[in-house]
Structure formats: C-alpha cells, structure tokens
Amino acid sequence: MSTYTCSNCDFEISGINCGKCGSELEYKVLTKDDGSTVNVSECPDGCGKIKSPMCCGDDMVAVG
What we know:
This protein is an all-beta fold and 64 residues long. It has one domain. The protein has no helices and eight strands. The protein has a three-stranded antiparallel β-sheet, with no helix packed on it. It has a three-stranded antiparallel β-sheet with strand order 3-4-5, with no helix packed on it.
C-alpha cells in the first residue's frame, strides 16, 4: 500500500483507490518531453491517472 507523505509538514495519506474499479492507485513519475517530471497516481487496471496529491504547495511523494 502506498503512503504519500508531505516533506514540509509530515502529513500522510494512505491507500488511494480508483473510484471506477476499486484498485489501489500506484505512484508513478512521468518524464515530459522537456525532461521535467510529474508525479501521478495511476490505476494499475488502466482506468486512468491523476496528478499525485499536494500538500503545503508541493507534490506528496509515495514512501512505501
């Protein structure tokens, strides 16, 4: 189970699920054409993806 943590205030979110199929979303880092990266949470069953959660103005990072 992925736990997302804020590097500024240590707030945590655990286990974000897809509303369509119920699968737990997986943390991924996408690399854009210009070399920059975007953190996303993606359904492993292919239902879709969203930008990873934010806290304190920064992307939260999965730590497990």
